[in-house]
Write a structure and sequence with these properties.
With 316 residues, the chain is of the alpha/beta class. The protein is 46% helix and 10% strand. It has an 8-stranded parallel beta sheet with strand order 7-6-5-4-3-2-1-8.
């Protein structure tokens, strides 16, 4: 029996048949209901004091990300400097949660952020496709961890999942979790390829059962990426998983979240679906690159009453 199976559900993964029966026995998602509830929560008005708190919380939840083929050590160092001091003109502005880079850039990020408390995350497992032999994907993880990454963002084998080979996906996630050692594991579901909310719910439970510390919507390379209804389904899953097992798992929407207004909608969704326990960077993150700039612009507007000029923030 795999040690990562959550307490209280240890029999679920004893066989492929048992795992399939459990996942397909989960309650179906009311598609219309999920979309309407997400839309309704997205209309909530946030007043000035609460908005200031929400903007700072959202900044603290950002995984500041660069995942481009043209990434260089210099670009990563500049991104780390921004992570440490998002607004150099305002020392009250909090730092972000993490910097997320490819494995080859982990050492640079670790060196630059040493002693800051900001996490270094790395995408791995043949990101973003996940189309590589398991041994190659595990080596990818081991290299990132050896370089100092304390968070690993892995992508599941969507082909295996959509083919119904759930035990194969489970075993691969469990193997990656073992390769992470003490590093936290974020499991990317790539919800844009899962097609249905029922599949999102099943993939969420599968990732948690196999030992994932976070479930993440997307790589940011596939459209659609994060959406409010999909994140709602995932938040319901982590809430119900904790009720069933006592273990809390985080959620990370990533891709397409670009404005402070959008970020606040997600924070309302978290509070109203999973509860206040998830309103912390340990349990909720935004995978983003451009979002931070808008959060900083809105923070400046709230404190000064005027919008900043175009040179107020750096273009990453």
């Amino acid at each position: 029996m795999t040690a990562t199976v959550a307490s209280g559900l240890s029999e679920v993964a004893r066989s492929d048949a048992a795992l399939r029966a459990f996942l397909h026995g989960l309650p179906g998602v009311d598609q219309v209901g999920a979309q309407q509830r997400a839309a309704m929560l997205g209309t909530r008005s946030i007043k000035t004091t609460s908005k200031a708190w929400a903007l700072d919380l959202a900044i603290r939840m950002v995984d500041l990300t660069t995942l481009e083929g043209a990434d260089t050590p210099g670009k990563v160092r500049a991104l780390c400097a921004k992570a440490l001091r998002p607004d150099p003109t305002d020392p009250s502005c909090p730092p972000v949660a993490a910097v997320c880079v490819y494995p080859t850039m982990v050492a640079t990020a670790v060196e630059t952020l040493e002693g800051s408390g900001i996490h270094v995350a790395s995408v791995a497992t043949a990101f973003p496709s996940g189309q590589a032999p398991l041994a190659v994907r595990l080596a990818d993880v081991e290299a990132a961890v050896a370089a100092g990454a304390d968070e690993i963002d892995m992508v599941i084998n969507r082909g295996a999942f959509l083919s119904g080979r759930y035990r194969e996906v489970f075993d691969e996630i469990a193997a990656v979790k073992a390769a992470c050692g003490s590093a936290h594991l974020k499991v990317i579901l790539e919800t844009g390829e899962l097609a249905t909310y029922d599949n999102v719910r099943r993939a969420s439970w599968l990732a948690m059962l196999a030992g994932g510390d976070f479930i993440k919507t997307s790589t940011g390379k596939v459209s659609p990426a994060a959406t409010l209804p999909v994140t709602l389904v995932m938040l319901e899953a982590v809430r119900d998983f904790r009720a069933a097992t006592g273990r809390q798992v985080g959620v990370k929407p990533a891709g397409g979240i670009r404005t402070a207004k959008d970020a606040i909608k997600y924070l309302v969704l978290v509070n109203e679906t999973a509860g206040e326990d998830w309103l912390h960077p340990d349990w909720f993150r935004f995978g983003a690159s451009s979002l931070l700039n808008d959060l900083l612009m809105q923070r400046y507007k709230l404190s000064t009453g005027r919008y900043a000029g175009p040179n107020y923030v750096t273009l990453d």
